[in-house]
Amino acid sequence: MSKLAFVFPGQGSQKVGMLNDWGDELSEAFSLASDVLGYDLWKLIQDGPAEKLNQTEYTQPAILTLSVAIWLLAKEHGAAPNIVAGHSLGEYSALVAAEVLSFEDAVSIVQRRGQLMQSAVPVGKGGMAAILGLEDQNIVEICRACSEKEVVEAANFNSPGQVVIAGHLDAVKRVVEVSKNAGAKRAMLLPVSAPFHCSLMEPAAIEMANVLDTVSLKEPSIKLLQNVDAEYPKTVEDIRDNLIAQMSRAVFWTSIIERMVEDGVTTVVECGPGNVLTGLNRRIDRSIKSHRISSSEDISIVMEALI
């Protein structure tokens, strides 16, 4: 029997005005989030300024709230996935969908997560880059060769031939140049404020453990695949440990989608702003039927397609 998966995006899809396609359907979720955050999240997303929205401590609650609000609407329309997963920050949206975390707790956690990730490395000292067109292992080896006692590591295995690296900025730049010479189709620095998902985030991971100790996690109501190992956690403690590790370890998105396909998933719905994951998923396995819900009119179209 074919299975359905819902997946949730991470940072990068945010933009001022991304709620323009929605009416009052999302107001309850944004009101709850704003109460937790202490500021008007809806107004920030609608009016900006973009510089503030793009700061990770504001970006993370914004993406999470929009993704969860869309998920709740899709659920009202009959969405019943067999498996959920999220990319980086999106894992918290998946945890809310699987009823592991309350929405309010998730908003509070990701706000703090953004603050911790931003403060772990001084601005300008770290960086990230996307490398396209090389084998994963080749990139890992180039990172090792270019480190020169600095940190530079594979941070996101996004799809075959697309890996994001992170670490000290100078080391990242060295990997970009060596990758170009090694035949990469593209190798480019990314406009991010911190080097996510590498060992430079270990101080933030230690603090994240304290944050997660303050909230209650429950057994998933929907099967959940996590970033750090592309596995189904066996216990609530595993979920907590994986969330801590996720701060300073790579996201294995390619492996997550491959695991879904192995387990019978034929249709994947991206739930949240943008369509980044939809594009990645198609590159990982072209047999997947891919849909996305990022506007109000998408819901009825996608739910009809799922029948």
Salient structural properties:
single chain, about 300 residues, alpha/beta, 5-stranded parallel β-sheet, 4-stranded antiparallel β-sheet, 9 strands, about 45% helix, globular
Brief sketch in words of this structure:
This protein is α/β, with parallel strands linked by helices and 307 residues long. It is 47% helix and 16% strand.
Structure description:
The protein has 307 residues and is α/β, with parallel strands linked by helices. 47% of the residues lie in helices and 16% in strands. The protein has 13 helices and nine strands. A five-stranded parallel sheet has the order 7-2-1-8-9, with helices on both faces. Strands 4-5-3-6 form a four-stranded antiparallel sheet. It starts with a strand and ends with a helix.
